[in-house]
From TrEMBL:
It comes from the Bacteria. It comes from Novosphingobium kunmingense. The keyword Ribonucleoprotein does not apply. The keyword Mitochondrion does not apply. GO terms for molecular function: heme binding; iron ion binding; monooxygenase activity; oxidoreductase activity, acting on paired donors, with incorporation or reduction of molecular oxygen. InterPro entries: Cyt_P450 (IPR001128), Cyt_P450_B (IPR002397), Cyt_P450_CS (IPR017972), Cyt_P450_sf (IPR036396). Belongs to the cytochrome P450 family. This is Cytochrome P450. Keywords: Heme, Iron, Metal-binding, Monooxygenase, Oxidoreductase.
Length: 415
């Protein structure tokens, strides 16, 4: 492998490691990716905190890779769907947890089919009234003209409440879901044995809480996700590791992505006030604007695959066992697909082509719920003629996986 790595690194552009957390903490990832898209859209990075990897930064090769799961594996056995994880063997204290997003067909297909109906059109439509009510309650509890943290008071509150509803999780303990989500998606914690141990402790606590809920639902099933799993052929006999793995997937997928899009909407529109004014003047623009805001924010920066056989992508030779990182955050700014890609354009014609929800067989199963939550938030703010104005630069998540906000101080005003 060492000889192959030398061969791979013989490129005109020196390797740019875009996995470095400071790029995201300081919001300066845009220029490195712009250069990669222009000069080395598929580049081998021989050294990083996560080991060597292929960096794929443009739209078309990402779609190509996503469409070939038989060559580019998502399997947990090789390290899964995020940048941590050595292909050959787990790190000390690393526990590899099966989850259906980190599986290849046919196992992925069976488990996804179990979960997908809970996020179908009729099921999501039935959530609308409750989401409206919860959003209205949260917005009506906020002070006008007084600074507060939008992430804590709005983004976390709304997404955690939605998760608690989907799982029928005890309402008074719902904020544990936020903590477990943060631990589950923290790739920086997965670079050391000590970090893995801390993460394992949190996820063990989560597993115990949900095991109790599983036992409760076995006796008294409902329509929640735990009951759906219990009653399915594909998921009723999961191992403890697989159970916890799927919980991580559903919690991180349902929490971090929507939560950071809700925060990104406030910060993003503050950077483009003319677009914000257009949206405030015409509520009919909201559905398209939501797609554009999800594109612009890209709440999960990347997904990862492992090469199962020697192959070639756009003339670049990849070896069996190589780690491939698909940078959605860069593809969503690919100027060959999205004109003026760094700008928010609320009526962008092709905003729905964004890759924030992935592509192909692993496209986010809960995308409709995320879209509904975001549309509802914009609608309810519009009804109240509320505008959230950032009063300081946000504190951002210092990591290359979850692309989001730890804190965003705002003041509300009426327009």
């Amino acid at each position: 492998m060492a000889t192959a790595a030398v061969e791979r690194s013989a490129e005109p552009l020196a390797p740019i490691d875009v996995s470095r957390p400071e790029l995201y903490a300081e919001d300066r990832w845009q220029e490195p990716f712009r250069r990669l898209r222009s000069e080395a859209p598929i580049q081998y990075v021989p050294d990083s905190a996560f080991g060597p990897y292929w960096s794929v930064s443009t739209y078309k090769p990402i779609v190509f890779i996503e469409a070939l799961p038989r060559i580019f594996s998502s399997s947990w056995e090789y390290g899964g769907i995020a940048i941590p994880g050595i292909v050959d063997a787990p790190m000390e204290n690393e526990v590899r947890m099966p989850m259906f997003i980190a599986m290849d067909p046919p196992h992925h297909t069976a488990q996804r089919r179990t979960i997908a109906p809970s996020f179908g059109p009729s099921e999501v439509a039935a959530m609308k009234a409750e989401i409206q009510q919860r959003t209205a309650e949260v917005l009506d509890s906020l002070p006008v003209g007084e600074a507060f943290d939008w992430v804590e008071r709005v983004s976390i509150e709304l997404t955690t409440g939605m998760l608690a509803r989907l799982f029928d999780f005890p309402w008074e303990e719902r904020h544990k879901l936020t903590y477990w989500s943060d631990m589950g998606g923290d790739v920086e914690r997965m670079t050391t044995p000590e970090g893995h141990a801390e993460r394992n402790a949190a996820l063990t606590e989560m597993g115990e809480a949900f095991a109790a809920l599983w036992a409760q639902k076995a006796a008294h099933p409902g329509k929640d996700l735990i009951s759906v799993m219990l009653q399915s052929e594909a998921m009723s006999h999961m191992s403890p590791q697989e159970f916890v793995g799927n919980l991580i997937l559903l919690i991180v997928g349902g929490n971090d992505t929507t939560r950071n899009s809700m925060s990104g909407f406030v910060y993003g529109l503050s950077q483009f006030p003319e677009e914000r004014a257009r949206l405030e003047a015409d509520p009919a623009l909201i559905p398209g604007a939501v797609q554009e805001l999800i594109r612009w924010q890209t709440p999960l920066s990347h997904m990862r695959r492992t090469v199962l056989e020697d192959t070639e992508v756009d003339g670049v030779a990849m070896k069996k066992g190589d780690k491939v990182v698909m940078w959605y955050v860069s593809a969503n700014r690919d100027e060959s697909v999205f004109k003026d890609a760094d700008r928010i354009i609320i009526d962008r014609e092709n905003a729905r082509r964004h890759l924030s929800f992935g592509y192909g067989i692993h496209r986010c199963v809960g995308a409709r719920v995320a879209e509904l939550q975001l549309c509802t938030l914009l609608e309810e703010m519009g009804k109240r003629r509320l505008r959230a104005n950032p009063v300081a630069e946000p504190e951002r998540v210092p990591a290359c996986f979850v692309h989001g906000y730890k804190k965003l101080m705002v003041e509300l005003s009426h327009y």
